Amino acid sequence: MTTDVAVDTRTRLLATALRLFTEHGVEGTSLQMIADALGVTKAAVYYHFKTKDEITEAVAEPALRELSRLVDAASQLRRPGARIDHILEGIVDLVLRNRVLVGVLFTDPGIGRAVERSLHGEMNLIGRIHDLLCGPDADAATMVATHVALAGVAMAGGSPTLAELDDETLRTHLLATARRVLGRRHRP
Amino acid sequence: MTTDVAVDTRTRLLATALRLFTEHGVEGTSLQMIADALGVTKAAVYYHFKTKDEITEAVAEPALRELSRLVDAASQLRRPGARIDHILEGIVDLVLRNRVLVGVLFTDPGIGRAVERSLHGEMNLIGRIHDLLCGPDADAATMVATHVALAGVAMAGGSPTLAELDDETLRTHLLATARRVLGRRHRP
DNA sequence: GTCTATACAACGATAGAC
DNA sequence: GTCTATCGTTGTATAGAC
């Protein structure tokens, strides 16, 4: 049975890792630094996670699982328009609630590879979102617009330049911009 | 005086580095791999570049210098509209002519940090482009739209999913999308 | 089950010989 | 301009204490 201490150490480890990642980047954060910040040995870190990649994946995992659930929920909506609205609002919301993580995820190197495995790999989130937003047989214009909207929302949400904007302001403008890119009318 | 052999070795080194970066990522490419591919020693590589970061910067430098010149040229145009058009078309063109590099630059870790130094650092390209596109005292809506447009164009241009689209098709749709994001009419 | 101690090959980087 | 030799540190790995 997993003890409370173990759970706590694992949780603290992930929180510490995220903090160090935002400060020094994934490449710039060594297992030694994480271990020192926790007051344990490098090998103790290695006990909880077999590789450094496992740590970066675990840091990003909660947000990715949420995104996966969002896509599932959107898939079950009947009207294509409702699907697009649901996924667009969900992604903007997800980005806003993870601004720090998203910032690391897209500006900083390192975590990108680990995330890409989830995005293009087993979950194939990118593919599923793409299909949901522009259908299976979309023309080039729609595909490009979808890419610009998704990448733009994600990177703008994590941008240091826009960090000064409060959540509600950023949400409003991200949604409006994304809807304009995808050619959807402004919502009532 | 720099001999022809030295210039050639340096040039071959950068070409080899870019190729290995696209294949294995920046993190996944060691100086040993670059040296082996060139048929020299790791220390020989160090003669041409003092650090690994210097190599990644040198790989990205031509594109960044081009971007800098583009911003300079746009700055000297009188009409704000003409400035925006010039910089938008220039960026799309630049992204298209460097699809491979841009792909590495934004999906792969490692090179990002080196590039960010140029983008936010001495040249402050991001800041200058931002000012050119939305002026010094822009509202939140314009700032968000500008961010989405820039990030979206850059990432969509390097996206593996859109790699199948030919240059002309991608150029047309990237430009149209970016203009729509920024609220500019489609050009005649 | 949780951690420390220890070791190892590979890495980026440096010094000095040719 | 390129080499050999070497450094400190990294990620990874195992053995064994509690």
What is the topology?
The structure is a homodimer of 188-residue chains.
Chain A: H1 4-24, H2 31-38, H3 42-48, H4 52-75, H5 80-97, H6 99-107, H7 111-120, H8 125-134, H9 140-158, H10 167-181
Chain A binds a DNA duplex (18 and 18 nucleotides) through residues 1-3, 5-6, 9, 30-32, 40-44, 46-48, 50-52.
What would you note in describing this structure?
The structure is a homodimer of 188-residue chains. The first copy, chain A, is an all-alpha fold and 188 residues long. Chain A is built from 10 helices and no strands. At the A-B interface, α7, α9 and α10 of A face α7, α9 and α10 of B. The structure holds a DNA duplex (18 and 18 nucleotides).
Short description:
The first copy, chain A, has 188 residues and is an all-alpha fold. Chain A has helices at residues 4-24, 31-38, 42-48, 52-75, 80-97, 99-107, 111-120, 125-134, 140-158, 167-181.
Largest sheet of chain A: none
Helix content of chain A: over 70%
Structural class of chain A: mainly alpha
CATH topology heading of the largest domain in chain A: Tetracycline Repressor, domain 2
Q: Which CATH class of the largest domain in chain A?
A: Mainly Alpha
What is the radius of gyration of chain A computed over CA atoms, rounded to a whole number of angstroms?
18 Å
Provide the succession of SSEs of chain A: HHHHHHHHHH
What portion of the residues of chain A fall into strands of 2 or more residues? Answer: under 5%
